[in-house]
């Protein structure tokens, strides 16, 4: 336990598993009251809440499909009714529906864009409305609010067979930068985290056998696959006043995956 986020309220979307679960636990360990959002599948999110409580923290699980405007608005209304306000949003929910480009259905294209990109728009907009309604309060944080967008190395690395996913992450980059520019005068900081390969359910096939993990490590100069806690530590820092002069930035947490490892031996 530390006190970096003491007295603040954080919402983490898609926090019933993987990176979101680790971020929720770490924010609570830093003193925040955490809303563990899930897509109306409560059991895994309740487990995360149980873990936070057993660590001595405070959390609740709240269902809302981040791609549905009415559900997102309802979730923020509930949070403000229960906790008074919101200080931190980690817009983390995301998924993949992979296929070669020429076989990709419009439904799979739209589904991924709706959750990964429109979901971040809807959650960031409602969080920002609440930050502005509450206004500055230096007893909570130097900033009036903090938004962290979970992006990916695929906001810069093209990804054949995953054009819907890579497009959603490329979109997050300019969405994040545009609202960071717009909201900075209001003392609202907006940043992104670009995870590399992190062991979670989303990419299980890429690391669950020794052969798959060895192949994956060839893309990672630091030569290990990441774990959700690697991302959680970065999220705590970006949510805290320790990063108060940081806005509009993507922090890649990727063991060097974005360093063009194919050029490591001279290209
Ligand atoms: P994950 O599948 O464990 O987590 C995704 C979470 O989002 C799940 O808990 C899921 O229930 C939730 N979710 C899906 N649709 C939702 C919706 N409509 N509303 C609310 N929640 C919804 O995978 P993860 O790796 O932890 O992914 C978390 C984020 O990290 C994603 O945005 C993903 O793109 C990003 N990311 C992951 C990696 C990686 O290597 N694992 C790398 C880069 C980026």
From TrEMBL:
Q: Which PROSITE patterns match?
A: ADH_SHORT
Any Pfam family from its record, for instance, is adh_short_C2
| Alphabetical keyword list | Oxidoreductase
Lineage: superkingdom? Bacteria
InterPro entries according to UniProt: NAD(P)-bd_dom_sf, Sc_DH/Rdtase_CS, SDR_fam
E.C. number(s) listed in UniProt: 1.1.1.47
Q: Keyword Metal-binding: yes or no?
A: no
Alphabetized GO MF terms? glucose 1-dehydrogenase [NAD(P)+] activity
Q: Does the keyword Oxidoreductase apply?
A: yes
Q: What class of enzyme is it?
A: oxidoreductase
NCBIfam families named among the record's database cross-references: PRK07231.1
The record's comment on protein family reads: Belongs to the short-chain dehydrogenases/reductases (SDR) family.
Protein name according to UniProt: Glucose 1-dehydrogenase
Query: Which species is this record about?
Result: Tunturiibacter psychrotolerans
């Amino acid at each position: 336990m530390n006190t970096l986020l003491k007295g603040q309220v954080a919402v983490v979307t898609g926090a019933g598993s993987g990176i979101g679960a680790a971020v929720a636990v770490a924010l609570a360990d830093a003193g925040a009251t955490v809303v563990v959002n899930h897509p109306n599948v409560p059991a895994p999110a309740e487990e995360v809440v149980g873990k936070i409580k057993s660590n001595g923290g405070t959390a609740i699980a709240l269902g809302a499909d981040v791609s549905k405007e009415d559900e997102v608005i309802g979730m923020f209304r509930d949070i403000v009714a229960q906790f008074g306000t919101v200080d931190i949003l980690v817009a983390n929910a995301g998924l993949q529906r992979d296929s070669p480009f020429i076989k990709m259905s419009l439904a799979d294209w739209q589904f991924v864009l709706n959750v990964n990109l429109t979901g971040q728009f809807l959650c960031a907009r409602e969080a920002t409305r609440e930050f502005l309604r509450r206004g500055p309060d230096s007893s909570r944080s130097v900033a009036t609010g903090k938004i962290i967008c979970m992006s990916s190395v695929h906001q810069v690395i093209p990804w054949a067979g995953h054009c819907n996913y890579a497009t959603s992450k490329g979109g997050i980059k300019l969405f994040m930068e545009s609202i960071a520019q717009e909201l900075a005068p209001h003392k609202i900081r907006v940043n992104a985290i670009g995870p590399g390969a992190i062991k979670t359910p989303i990419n299980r096939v890429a690391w669950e056998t020794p052969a798959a993990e060895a192949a994956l490590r060839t893309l990672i100069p630091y030569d290990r696959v990441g774990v959700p806690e690697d991302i959680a530590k970065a999220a705590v820092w970006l949510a805290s006043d320790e990063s108060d002069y940081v806005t509009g930035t993507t922090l890649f947490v990727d063991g060097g995956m974005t360093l063009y490892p194919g050029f490591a031996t001279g290209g």
